[in-house]
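User: My instructor asked us to take a sequence, write out its structure as tokens, and then describe one feature of it. I'm not sure where to start. Here is the sequence I was given:
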Amino acid sequence: MDLGTGTAANIRYLAPRLGGEQSWLPVDNDVALIAEQPAQLRGAHFRCTLTPMQVDLATQLHSLPFAGCNLVTASALLDLVSAAWLDQLARHCAEAGASVLFALSYDGRVAWSPSDPDDEWLRALINRHQQGNKGFGPALGPGATAHARKAFAALAYSVHTIASDWAIEPDALQMQSELIDGWIAAACEIAAEDQLRVIEWGRRRKVHLLAGRSRLRVGHQDFIAWPTRAA
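Assistant: Let's start with the prediction itself. The structure tokens for your sequence are:
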């Protein structure tokens, strides 16, 4: 089961690495994205079928058929959900005896090169914004992976995390520009009284970007856990 599947990029990445015969349940609430998902994936050493489900994960997690799933995955999801929602997901997975793999959860680290005096101030605003309600209740934001470790360990899972940072080079001009614009908007929501300071930070960052010298590392964590005993 893949949660928040979108166009199934996560499945396309994992399927050839898992190998063999696979059946996937892609879960998403966006009809347009579901329409772009393939029905089957085949390669030299694997073959899988995809049977999509349209579900609002924020309110209908309990409706998913966890029983029989031996793997539950997601990408860029955990930092958007609340502690209560993640605890509920952990219980469903434990009851099914399923292993889990959650990729690309933002962990609050941001490092720019060249640096700017307001980088850390801006990062703190972004991390506060990350903890707002993203549709699942107060979001875990940078604390998502730490909470996942605690939730699954309490259910007798072995847990492991590894850094999976975005390392964004100067030639990724569009990606950096969109991140700067998005963070300006988010920071202004948190600190409207400092809007001019935020905008000026963005202007200085784009000077570095347009000069071809801007590098950015955004901290993310991958999380894997598997049951060490029968649920």
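For the description part of your assignment, you could build on this observation: The chain is about 40% helix and 30% strand. Try explaining in your own words what that tells you about the chain.
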